[in-house]
């Protein structure tokens, strides 16, 4: 398992589809996953620690797990089949460890609210992970080279855009 963090939530300018970008904690490898607008908003609110006043759906799920004596340990994106990602919530209930099937977007939204780790299976990262390009050195507006971090960011963006399959944006997650 590879531990990841939510790097960003992106919106396609063409069709308004949302994408959560997970970044491997110990490298520059990224995993983009198409998600719905409501899940994107839930993840963003969780990252910003926004209080909605009343429990939203992901808050409700966390409350149910807790009230039933469980504890969310982590979430795990464990598979990629037919362009669809699969995840589980890993919950300890007493002496038992339970894995609950979940869409990655819902699992991530719950993880950021509960402040638990997010893991991705190594084979999923190998299949769908992306590494920023390092062979192109863009220049800044003054004609000089960009800082190393800026080059990595631009290379990642370029790789990401070139790798988009805009004909099938909603097939990544069911």
Number of strands: 7
Query: How many domains comprise the coordinates?
Result: 2
Distance between the termini: 23 Å
Helix content bin: 25-40%
Radius of gyration: 18 Å
In the CATH scheme, the class of the largest domain would be Alpha Beta
Shape-level CATH architecture of the largest domain: Roll
- Helix-strand string: EEEHHEEEHEHH
Percent strand equals 25-35%
- Shape estimate: globular
Mean pLDDT: 84
Order of the strands making up the biggest sheet:
3-2-1-7-4-5-6
Provide the CATH topology of the largest domain. Bifunctional nuclease domain
Largest sheet composition: 7 strands, mixed
* Secondary-structure class: alpha+beta
Number of helices: 5
Q: CATH H-level name of the largest domain... which superfamily?
A: Bifunctional nuclease domain
Q: What are the low-pLDDT stretches, counting only 5+ consecutive residues below 50?
A: 136-148, 168-172
């Amino acid at each position: 398992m590879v531990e990841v963090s939510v790097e960003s939530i992106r919106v396609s300018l063409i069709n308004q589809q949302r994408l959560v970008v997970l970044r491997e904690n110990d490298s520059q490898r990224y995993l983009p996953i198409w998600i719905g607008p409501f899940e994107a908003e839930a993840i963003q609110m969780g990252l910003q620690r926004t209080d909605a006043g009343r429990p939203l759906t992901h808050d409700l799920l966390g409350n149910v797990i807790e009230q039933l004596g469980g504890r969310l340990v982590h979430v795990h994106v464990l598979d990629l089949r037919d362009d669809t990602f699969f995840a589980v919530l890993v919950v300890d209930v007493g002496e038992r460890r339970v894995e609950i099937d979940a869409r990655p977007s819902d699992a991530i939204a719950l993880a950021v609210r509960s402040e638990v780790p997010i893991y991705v299976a190594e084979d999923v990262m190998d299949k769908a992970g992306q590494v920023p390009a390092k062979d192109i050195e863009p220049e800044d507006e003054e004609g000089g080279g960009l800082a190393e971090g800026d080059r990595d960011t631009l290379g990642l963006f370029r790789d990401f855009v070139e790798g988009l399959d805009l004909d099938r944006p909603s097939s990544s997650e069911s």
